[in-house]
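User: Can you help me understand a structure? I only have the sequence.
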Amino acid sequence: MALFERLKAAAPGEWACYVDHAFVRGMGDGTLPEAAFRTYLVQDYLFLIQFARANALAAYKSRTLADLRAAKDGLSAIVDVELDLHVRLCERWGLSPADIEAAPEHQATVAYTRFVIDCGMSGDLLDLHVALAPCVLGYAEIGRALAPAGVDALAGHPYREWIGEYAGDAYQQVAANASRHLDDLGARYLGPGRFDELAALFGKASRLEADFWQMGLDAAGL
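Assistant: Let's start by predicting it. Here is the structure, written out as tokens:
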């Protein structure tokens, strides 16, 4: 079983709260209020800046060329793809990149991103990638779940562009590569008795992801 699947199985409650959150369900059926999505999107832009830093930290902590390439690919996926999606969507509300970057970070944004960076600073490369996994791999899982008949079937859906980004082949490949790299790190670093510690870390990161969704709902008064 892939390490990612083992981690999910070890934290079923935390994982379900994240991937089946009311925010996600609202995106899926199109009932999520725009105010909730807008708050989320601006904060997710700030979130991704910090996650780019986490991937830069992964590059610094890399001991092999393969690890270094994985960190480079993760950084590129954020800086060259995901941030551009957020800019395009925010332009609909007249928000420029400068406007978004000037927004204050919400407590939920700070809590999750600094948790991930702290895991990387205090632990090894496996700790860091386990902390990143709910975001990197979870968004791919959510994207697939929200587009069961494919992206083309979402014509007219208010959140088609967001869902399409994460359900699309390009991001699904990013996630598949990340899962394989996590397995490789596990083969090298997962010693006896360590899995329980990693499962706790994964569960905490998943709870913080759920809190991030909730932030958007709270902002809309839901």
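Now, to help you interpret it: The mean pLDDT is 93. DSSP finds eleven helices and no strands in the chain. Let me know which part you'd like to focus on.
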